[in-house]
Amino acid sequence: MTTVVFRPGGEIQNLQVGAADIVALLGAAHSAWGWLGALTGVKTILDRAREYVGATRQSDFELSLPIPNGKYFIVTSRGPTSWEDGHRAFGGDPKMQFVGATLCALAHECGPDPAVKLFVECVAPTLWEHEFRSVPGLKECVQLQLMDNIQAILNDGAIRGFTKLFIEAAADCGLTRGDLE
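Now predict its structure.
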């Protein structure tokens, strides 16, 4: 509960903010910023697995998909404001950007849960073949991390306009939604 005490002239004299307001504010902030770093857990797990198996360096990996900056609209006391985020998508690591973009594309066509399953079964083993073979349970651990964070990953893609990019790419190839099913 918020209590505002005004002076007779209209100025605020005192402001008390209750616990519910703080929880609501933190919830809104988490919703607005919650997708940043959604693939950090997966990257950390894989980095630790590489250390465990004695891999000294990752293979070189380049992503050719230009990922635009995120665009936000924030409602302020002065009205709506747009803001462009300069943070690099999906934590900035090229392999994680590929993972995020691939998950977003799969989810665009088949939904979040099937996207994670398809990714873990078909794509991830080619990216992390050595790690998956060497560390028992690693594949399942990565899958759980992705399942826990899929909405945040999709949010990161959405603020960067991935849905529009996917629709335009399909149109450029002459594909319609029915062709993809």
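Residues 1-33 form one domain.
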